[in-house]
Amino acid sequence: MLRAIETAHTLGMTVIGFTGLKGRRFAALCDHALVAPHASTPRVQEGHIAMGHAVCQLVEHALFPRAGARADRGDRALIEGLRPRQWTKNLLLFAGVLFSRRLGEPALVLRAALGFAAFSLVASATYLLNDLRDLESDRQHPRKRLRPIASGRLSPAVARITAIVLVLIAAVLAWQLGPRFGAVLLAYLLLNLTYSAYLKRQVLLDVFAISSGFVLRAIGGVELLLPVAPGTGFPRGSWCAPSSARSSWHSPSAVASWRERVTTRRASGKCWIATRLSSSMVSCWSRRPPA
Questions:
Q1: CB atoms within 10 A of CB 290
Q2: CATH superfamily of 71-223
Q3: Which pLDDT value is given to residue 72?
Q4: Cα→Cα distances 131→79, 157, 267, Å
Q5: Which among 1, 154, 178, 225 is most buried, taking Cβ atoms within 10 Å?
Q6: Per-domain residue ranges for the chain?
């Protein structure tokens, strides 16, 4: 036994020994000695049986973390992987409605809420994809190894399917909110995927990418200020707006009425930025041919 320990040390192996109070020499040669505090052989053997079960469980959990995971913790692990705490960054989508002093318009507030949901879903999807990409490196990291996928509490297949579903739901919301908002959301998705794959390991570029994410959120909030068709939550002239709403928006009387509102707000000095944006939108939309 002693020669076996010496050979193991020569090969660079770690030796864990089980002994009792009489095996002091044996314990001194082991890297980790588990000593049963008794001199009687039967009592020592009983202690070794309990210690052996504990060691096997620790080894099994380290090599096969999914085996020890409970099924009832799957939902909690999935929610943790979505990182809902990071959704607070997307509150910037409400900045347009807030600073234009249009919180009293339910249609615009609803559009801002849907935009917030779309950005949050895309953000959660990219977090899952990032954890899938960095799975092996996260398992070697002292802190990141506790993440749901790296620790085995969340299956990679479930994470992959969830990410796809979240992106699809966000695409539907973007389709409802108009093509220009959809383009901003797509740019945000591509930026996050590029950041996860390459930019986060580049000095300065990672900071620029994070800053660009906040800029895209602000742009998305401004795009949500598009005039809303009466009785709907859809932007006038968008893909999903009713044909009657699009026709009324292209009519000269509607354009003149909106220009009058813009002029009144500009003259009063209120919401100067919002009215300038609205004026530009009116000019662009009024030149479009009727649907």
A1: 9
A2: UbiA prenyltransferase (1.10.357.140)
A3: 47
A4: 14, 12, 52
A5: 154
A6: 2-63, 71-223, 243-286
Stretches where the chain sits below pLDDT 70 are 64-74, 227-291
pLDDT at 181 (0 to 100):
93
Each residue's pLDDT tens digit, 151-178: 888 889 999 999 999 999 999 999 989 8
What end-to-end distance do the CA atoms of the chain give, in Å? 89
Query: How is residue 86 written in tokens?
Result: 């990071």
For position 193, what pLDDT does the model report? 92
Strand 16-19 relative to strand 32-35: parallel, antiparallel, unpaired?
parallel
Residue 245: Cβ within 10 Å count: 21
Alpha-carbon span 18 to 36, nearest angstrom: 8
Helix (H, G, I), strand (E, B) or coil at 108: helix
Q: In 68-105, where does DSSP find H-type helix? A: 74-82, 95-99
Q: Where would I find the beta strands (DSSP E) of the chain?
A: 16-19, 32-35
Q: Are 96 and 115 in contact (CB under 8 A)?
A: no
Q: Is the pTM of this model over 0.70?
A: no
Cα–Cα distance, 133 to 256 (Å, whole number): 53
Crossing angle (nearest 10°) for helices 156-177 and 179-197: 150
Is residue 149 within 8 A of residue 81, CB to CB? The reply is: yes
Alpha carbon of 81 to those of 86, 163, 261: distances in Å? 11, 10, 46
